[in-house]
Amino acid sequence: MTAHNRRPLPKRGLVWLSVIVVALAAPLVFRSDTALNIGILLLLYATLAQAWNILGGLAGQISFGNAVFFGIGAYTSTVLLVRAGVSPWLGMLAGAALALVVALLVGFPMFRLGGHYFAIATIALGEIASTIVTNWDAVGGATGIVIPLVRDAQGQPSDSWRMLQFNQSRLPYYYLALVLLALTTLVTALILRSKLGYYLRAIRNDQQAARALGVAVLRYKLAAIALSAIFTAIAGTLYAQYLLYIDPETTMRLDLSVLAALIAILGGVGTVAGPLIGAAVMVPMSELTRAFLGGGGNAIDLLLYGGLIVLISLFEPQGLIGIGRRFRRSPRSQPVTVEPAPISSSEEAH
Question: Sign of dihedral through CA atoms 82, 86, 91, 94?
Fold first, then answer.
């Protein structure tokens, strides 16, 4: 390649490259268990928010039931592992496939509801699924399931890539969560640049107009919920393997669905970077609040980011992404231009 053909990376590319480098190096700099735990949760919640963004941000279908897909991923891999000894990697694929089937089955009737009715229906879906699992003894019921530790020949807890379990160091969980988030973000970016992205945004902006122009509204909504369910279920499997314990309260609760939506809304709904920014703000704030305030501060974090959401909604509906764009468009950042002085009639005469 000649020097003439070399092109510098665009500014946006440099920003994304910097983010990747920081994400890769972060656990090597912040080595404490608390920092690593926050990093893993940040990446997992960012994945949930990015997956929600495909359905709620691009297609405009506000869902509060994505925890159902998260729970399906967690329970499918865990039950297959504990009952049949199936590797969590295969369980992850089975969970994603089952979440896909459930998403299509529930999406077909629910997408006939519009606006707030669809959101209410997703809440009902989440509560029904949680109640079923809570009263289903075969999947552990309300007490949940404990994933047995992988042990070496001396009986000590050990690491196993085949069983997706790391007891010596939690670092592999971080990089697996990072890969999953990168994949989800890449798919979201590709959707935005594809015909599917245009169709989803047309549906979000005016569903009736999109249908009148020949867009197959139901088909593209089903595509959005299918993709959202697959990535959410994969995150559920990884979360189960990280905690080594699941129950309905940790995997299928309503506030998990709400949190995924709030992260995307705070960062900038319908954008690629928005869920990442929202997670980078909300997850550390939530975890540090709990760490410093203990059990007495359980609701403080909810109050804090609830207040943030209210402020963002009132003053900048496009989220933190919108605030950043506003600063870039501020008069101080604009180049100064000098308007030519008008030519008077006397000067024209000369």
Answer: negative
